[in-house]
Each structure stands twice: as C-alpha cells, then as structure tokens.
C-alpha cells in the first residue's frame, strides 16, 4: 500500500490579501566594540538602549527583532542585569525575537571558516541559555557579504539574516520589487535573506514619523501584503548627535509607536521569524560581494571616493542616470587592508593566532586552555578597529590596543601550556603579513618582535607579553575624503537630528592646520639619511628630504642561533647622496631578557665625509600630556610629557615611561647620541565629529656620521622594554571629559 506524505507550504494566498496591508519588521542592532570604555557604553545605555526599552514596553501590540552584539550583551548582563531580564520577559511574551550572530561582531569574510562557525554557534548557545529561546536568525556585521558565507552560516544552524536592498539592487533587482525575503544557496546549503530598506534607514528617525507611515501606505497600496524591513543601529535612537533630544524629549519615538498602533488594522509589526513561518519566499537569489552603500564608498581609495561623490552629485537630477544608478557599485570591503596597512597587520596577527589555537586543539592541549585562548582570539576579531568610515574605527588607539591585547593573551596562554622552559628564545620565518615576502618573528619568554627585511629591515610589531601590549599598534597620517571638509571648515552643528553620514561637527578648532600626511608607515628601526642642516622642525613638518634609499629598501637577512641567543643580521648595498655604501644592522635577543640589542655598521664611506643619519622608532599606546607618562634620563628625572617636541644633544641614555600602560622604554647608547621626539596625531572622523587623536610617540636618535680610517662607522643601542606590572597607576573611573578624544560610540 502507498503511504500518503503531505508536504505543507505556505501559499501566497494565505500570506497576502488584496486589501492594502503591509508588514514591517523592525530589526534593531545594538553594538559596542571590544575595548570600548565603560563610560561610553554606559552613556549609550542611558541615552539609547534603556529609554528605547522604556518606550517600547508600553506598546503591547508591537513586535521587533533585537540583535545585541556579544561584547555589549555580556557587558549589559554584568552591569544592568535588570535590563536583560526585561528583554527576556518580552521574549517570553512573543514581542521580541532574539537575533544572534558571531559572538564578538567580526566581519565574517575576514576570519577563517572554522572561526565563523565557532563564533556564531557559541553566541547562539549563550543567547539560548540566557533567554530560553531558539536563535534562528542572525545579524550580518556591517552587512559585509560574500556568497560563500552561506554554507558556513547554515552550518552554524542559522536560517535567515538581513542584508541591504543595495545588495539586491547590485544583483539586478528593482528595489520596488523587494517586498519579502529570498533564498540563497552555497554548496547545497540554503539561507533565507531579507533586504533591509535604505529608504527607511534615512527616514527613521530623522524625518517626521508621519513620513514613514505615508511611505508604508504607498507600499501597501502598490504591493498589498508586502513585507518591508528596517534594519539599523539602535544607537541612532539616542546616542548619535542630537538624537536623544529628538527621539525621546521631543517625542519622536512615542509618536512613531502611536501611529503604528493607530494603523495596526493595515500595518503589522512582525519579527523576522514570524515572516519566515507565515510567508513564502520571493524566489532564489545570488548576491554579489557587497555591503551597505556607504561602506562600499569608504572602501574605495580616497581619490575615487571624491570622484564617485562628484559623479553622483553631477547627475543626481538626470532621469536616465537614475535608472542606471543601481549598476554603479563602490569598493570591496577587503581592500580596507590595502587602504590601511595597519589593519592588515592586525588581520595577519589574528590569522597567526587563529592557527595557533587550531593547532593547540589538534595537539590536545587542555580544553580549558584552548577555550580561553579561543575566546581571546574571537575578541581579537571584533571588526571595528579593522576599517574606517563615518566612525573612528581604525583611528582609535584604544580599539587597536584591545585587539592586540586579546591576540597576545591568546598566544600567551598557548605558550604557557606548551610546556616551554621558564626562559627561552626562538626565531621563525614565514610570510606573516601575506605580502608574498618572508618576515622574521624574533621572540622569547618576555617579548616578540616582527621584522620585515624586504621593507627596510623595519620592526613592525613589538609585543610586551606581561602587559599584553603591542608597542607598534601605530597609525599613519594619510588623506581621507572628509579632509576636504576640514580644509573648508564646513561645520554643521546639526541642531536637528540628522543621519551620521550627513552631520559635520568640529570637536576642536584649527584642525585644518593639523592636516599632514606620512609618506610611509610609522614603524620602528627605519633608517634615514638627511641633509646635514636638517633640524627637528624640518622632520616634524615633513620637510626633510630622504637622501638615502635605505628607509624602505630590501635588506638581505641571515638568522644566527645559539641556545640562549638569536641574532638577525640584515644588510643592504645602497647609497646616500649618490654615494654607494653598505649598511648592516643586527638585532639580538637573549632568553629571559627584556633588552633588544641593535648594532649598526656603515661601510664604504668616502674619506672625510659627513652624513646625517637617524633611526626612527614609533611607540603606540603612550598618550601625551598625562600624569605618569613622560620622558627622562639619568641626569633629569623629567624631560616633559610624551607629547613634547624635544631636541636633545649627546645623551648616553634616554627613557620614556607610561605607568598606566605599564611600560618603561630605555635607550642605552655606546656613543653620544642626539634625540628628536615628537607626537603623531591624526585628524579623523567619528560619530561625534572631526577630532585630533594622538597615535604614537616618535623617538629618533640621530648622528653626524664620520668614517674611521677604513671608511666605516658603528653604533650600538640597547632598547630595554621593561614591563611595570607592579607599578601600574590607577586613575579611577575614566570620565568623558578626560577621554573624549578617543571615544567610540556604537560603531
């Protein structure tokens, strides 16, 4: 006998009606990055998250889908558990759907497949335990999409997500036809994708609430039964400039919810999960590599950003251009690693640590060690410091420092569990930064240095293990598209609430005078030849011409190993002022030592010649003009704070210390040495406006080189990187006034 098998599908007739009717899905995304200051998160809580909940709770007919990133959710559960309990109560009532995602909000295309699945699965488990509800949907961080993500997301048991209608438009679809959800596929795995409305992103909450209702009415009349999704940052409801006054004190949110309640006979607020269960898909779609429109523009080189902006404004009233606009796409997110080589350094380090964690698991290291190291790895994948747009992102030192802190912590855990002796030293060689050339990692039990022979023999990473700090988490000064506004002084205080993409606010005066750009990365062990009369102000102002070809040139490298000592010898046949010469520098590190010894030999110098030679060091994470952060030497206990411009003569030792970070850096010289110091500051953009941000301290020993009888010159310096773990200063609660220039609010 045959057995009947019934296949149930939601029919279009059951999901739609011929009467004007529309579903709107509010998908609220709340996020704070790993490493953000407690006071900034607390401010966002008081201005956005809490008041939004206070208003929403009163409207029992309204529903929404809520995504709170892992860094923020765990912070809220620790600091405001009552808030999380209130969310849980709304989940029990069926009014809030919890949306998951990768735990620490990485850009999924940036991390290995194993970490994608691990991050998503671990956060789903956390959320399900906390809220006693299944997690079927996820937020796509920054909506950065590549089709191959589909199979990994599905493998993590996620059934649906939200992208932008811009993704669908780039795939050739008309935005007017995007009134539901679609199915996409990769390697036989399926994922449902909702298009989020860019129109609603700019209406809500910046335009009168009635305009949103009018737009929904238009959609309902033209497409009865349509579903439209608003998916955007929760911080725009109170934390973005002027929005708290507008959304709460002026009553925008109450008015919006009143209107939705008043018109609930034809407007239904729905969760994403309800839509998937009650409606059929609109069909199959494959989406191109994409993000939201603004992100694709930020990923372009600066000159192309300006060119694209000019083209769009020139043709914005042309009807033919409007029909062709959907075929214009911006850049590719991965190229942020090209725009900002510093983010590529973070990415490369993250990939290195990801491999260490994976290897540790395969080798059977204790499960608790692997789990802890993996959690630090995941935190080191948080996206915010890896890119820059309307937010501080890559330009914020405390976010970059946090990334490296967690990555170094993960490495430390694995090193400790590997059964190494108390003191050890090693060198390894690989293409660590994925540039097609080999770099050298020189490490011991106290520190590690990352060296690029092909890039001037520079040190581009310098970790102090005990304080989990990378002294070369630096940032160079480079052009940005918005610097044109800084030059023109186009300040718009935005008395009324406006999109973060439209607000122009200057947090300091005279920023146009601070615009200056670096010709190379701000790293260490950079070899310069100057004019003999070059002074400090010439170097600071960028007026010192490079008279040699050593700063970024290729050095041949040889690694010499002993049981307790490793030495890297790098040499280059080059020239300065057209004079051929050979420069050799050696970097030595011993087991159990916090001293890097650096020796220079210059050969082939013309007799009776005089060359002005300097070696540039940059040190990150050492803020200026603050107590406990200063220069000194044996003769003078205080030479000024770390933002001072110093021109010091004939010293044998020189120190800079930061008792908050917990480090003292000391130079010991074998010959009288002159020192220049000066700060590196960037003019960058955040939600709060344009601001000056201290990035690093330059310490530049320099000499007038005179050859000996053989035409040679030598110098040796010892850089002592002392961790001050037992001498850390504690300043108490960080205030907004004290740290405002480095703040990051809801990236």
- First-last Cα distance: 62 Å
Tertiary shape: elongated
Strand portion: 25-35%
By secondary-structure content and strand pairing, the structural class works out as: alpha+beta
The mean pLDDT is 92
Named at the architecture level, the CATH assignment of the domain at 17-289 is: Alpha-Beta Barrel
CATH topology of the domain at 17-289: 7-stranded beta/alpha barrel
Describe the largest sheet: 12 strands, antiparallel
Which blocks of ≥5 consecutive residues have pLDDT under 50? 6-17, 731-747
Q: What is the number of helical segments per DSSP (H or I, 4+ residues)?
A: 22
**Percent in helix:** 25-40%
Cα Rg: 28 Å
Total number of strands: 26
CATH class of the domain at 17-289: Alpha Beta
Description of the structure:
Strands 15, 16, 17, 18, 19, 20, 21, 22, 23, 24, 25 and 26 form a twelve-stranded antiparallel beta sheet that branches. Strands 1, 2, 3, 8 and 9 form a five-stranded parallel beta sheet that branches. Among the domains are: 17-289, Alpha-Beta Barrel (7-stranded beta/alpha barrel); 523-738, Beta-galactosidase, Chain A, domain 5 (Distorted Sandwich). The relative contact order is 0.10. Helix 6 (149-155) links the parallel strand 4 (137-139) and strand 5. Residues 6-17 and 731-747 have low confidence and may be disordered. By secondary structure, the chain is an alpha+beta fold. Helix 9 (209-222) packs parallel to helix 11 (252-262) and helix 17 (341-362) packs antiparallel against helix 18 (367-379).
